[in-house]
Amino acid sequence: MTEQLIDSFGRVHNNLRISVTDRCNIRCFYCMPADDVVFMKRSALLSFEEIERFVRVATKLGVNKVRLTGGEPLVRRELDKLVAQIAAIPEILDVGLTTNGILLADQAEALYAAGLRRINISLDALDPVRFKEITRREGYEKVIEGIQAAQQVGFDPVKVNAVTIRGMTEDQVVPFGHFARETGAEIRFIEFMPLDADNAWERDKVLFAHEIIESLNREIMPLVPVGQQDKTAPATEFMFEDGVGRIGFIASVSRPFCESCNRFRLTADGKLRNCLFSLEETDVKTMIRDGGSDDEIAAAIRESVAAKKEGHEINTARFIQPDRPMYSIGG
Fold first, then answer.
1. Rounded Cα gap, residues 99 and 42, in angstroms
2. Where residue 262 sits, what CATH number does that domain have?
């Protein structure tokens, strides 16, 4: 029987998120500084072989789902080869990817052929001007092309992640609702979280899930919950009452889902993190490169997960924002 990764609160961890790079081709203000970003040296990044080895060890502890992230993962050359390596591991049932979509149109076919089946595309506005305001770069049309390419090669559903920010994206909510109905893409609204590089996050800037639901109910038609939802999934899912258009909400601030979290993370430079908001990391890259055994790596994974805290504490005076911003941790 396969071992399970269980923390002190009884949560079973089977979902591993792996950042393959901290580099990105846009500069979203809630994730990265606008300029003068110092990226990791190439030698600091885990190789595909090192990542594959780590995944194989993790599967012996019950991991069967992997999601690749960045930075922007598609700037890492030949990412489809890593997808194929991970998808070929017998215990892995599911390989996903989170991308900003700018490079996706050219890579979607190869990624699908390699075994990728789940894809999330980050897009915070359905307007080129607003897109540039948020990302501080051009590329809106490329993202739309990427969404279309993903659908054409067979990804179903294609999920679009939209971070919601008060004072900036309220007027994008209804267009996204129509986009879901017209394209078949599933929109996932994500509450603005305190992981920005500029430390400018304020609770007053969070556009809450219940406000978005009220807006969509009023402007399009009522949303109804989707039945039999995965309790470990971060999103609460709805559809419009006529059955056309699915909308998800990742309400990390207003409705934390920490009590059912089943995820832990490996950064691009080989640091193990048991929570997105963790203040502590375990260096497994050094362990791997210094000749550490699989048993030693497994022990490090067990210890990291066992030390996981009950929750992120965003809504308490105890909350401390991690030193690493989102692009460096992995989305």
1. 20
2. 3.20.20.70
